[in-house]
Amino acid sequence: MPADIIIIGAGIAGLSSAYELAEKGASVTVLDRGRAGMEASWAGGGILFPLLPWDYPEEVTALAMRGAALYPDWTHELLSSSGIDPEYVRCGMKVLEGGRSMENAAHWCAAHDVRFERGPGGEWFFPDVAQVRNPRLIRALRASLESRGVRIVENCEVRSLAREGRRIVRLGTSDGNIWAAQDFVVCAGAWSKMLLEPDLPGPDIFPVKGQMLLFEAANMLDTILLKDDLYLVPRKDGHILAGSTLEHVGFDKSVTAARMLHEKAAEILPGLAAENPVRQWAGLRPGSPGNVPTIARHPDIDNLYLNSGHFRYGVTMAPASAKRLAQIVFGEPSNSGI
Ligand SMILES: Cc1cc2nc3c(=O)[nH]c(=O)nc-3n(C[C@H](O)[C@H](O)[C@H](O)COP(=O)(O)OP(=O)(O)OC[C@H]3O[C@@H](n4cnc5c(N)ncnc54)[C@H](O)[C@@H]3O)c2cc1C
Q: Is residue 321 a contact partner of residue 310, using CB atoms and an 8 Å limit?
């Protein structure tokens, strides 16, 4: 039986879209060419705040702040429905003095009602910044979706979109099945543009590699630390995540920056100099000009939608983007100003 809606890509964008569309009564299937949530959405830091939001266009602030505001209730709901705790923690974020200008920070905070404190060393502390633990968020979301009847199909790569006039009629996939639906949503992360081309014009979405290191270093840190582009995120169980890089190297996910990240991490938190990282990895962000995602109906195809290109803040933006997407699919006006 055809689903009402097929979502291509089971990262945080695809799974959160499925959540909102199912909430509105749609029958939803999500296809992923690998395992659900194992690309950028697994690799990220889970910080629920743009790193230096005053440097971004207002659209980024609007989506990120709305997303961050939805997280406490959303993660609570996910915990209740799945039994898996996404570890939402309001741990605050301290920005240490570095080469980046904080000139617009106070004005931006006043305009967006964001609390901050200044420390004696010139650092800025944002007490309301929170984090989630990405792999746990994905697992909780997946379990919650499956309990609501959303079908998640793994190892199913979408290779073509068969079109009749202004409609997509079915998908060509690696599993050989015929996947047909009323509507389709592209949430294929860094691969979104590649999926649409060469048949359809797509938004400018490109891969931007980010590398991460994980330390087992209990009790060294209780708040997120940021200096220039390097951040440290303390997890609930004592792990510390250090990231990240911003590399334009195509779809290459090799890990090459462990030493550089370790040195920079130890500059911010000297105790890490003596620790050996327990794990390292890289992920591909769905980069977009200005960090502004595309949440829209495709201009040439009436039953094709996109929710992709969230670049550095796709986890933060996920619940807000998904709500916006669901409103567009159901032809409802925006009630949140985004
Ligand atoms: C190192 C790093 C640190 C980050 N830190 C943060 C942070 O602290 N806070 C924050 O908010 N964001 C952060 N981000 C950004 C965030 O992780 C991304 O914006 C977000 O995960 C993008 O989600 P997505 O679902 O669009 O993409 P993805 O998670 O990459 O999911 C896309 C999915 O589509 C599937 N797919 C692709 N092509 C096809 C196809 N043809 N057929 C079927 N399936 C397909 C893929 O297999 C994949 O599972 C970070 C990212 C990285 C890499």
A: yes
Q: Which atom of ligand 1 lies closest to the CA of 308? A: 26
Q: Are strands 167-173 and 158-164 parallel, antiparallel or unpaired?
A: antiparallel
SS3 letters across 216-227: ECCCCCCCEEEE
Instruction: Name the domain count of the chain.
Output: 1
Task: Kindly state the DSSP code that residue 51 receives in the 8-state scheme.
Answer: S
Whether residue 74 lies inside any domain: the answer is yes
pLDDT 10s digits, 247-257: 999 999 999 99
Q: Which atom of ligand 1 is nearest to the CA of 188?
A: 34
**Structural domain of 163:** 1-89+130-203+290-338
Ligand 1 pocket check for 187: Cβ under 6 Å: yes
For residue 44 and ligand 1, the question of a CB distance below 6 A is answered with yes
**0.85 cut: is pTM over it?**
yes
Cα(123) to centroid(ligand 1), Å = 31
Is residue 69 a part of any domain in this protein? yes
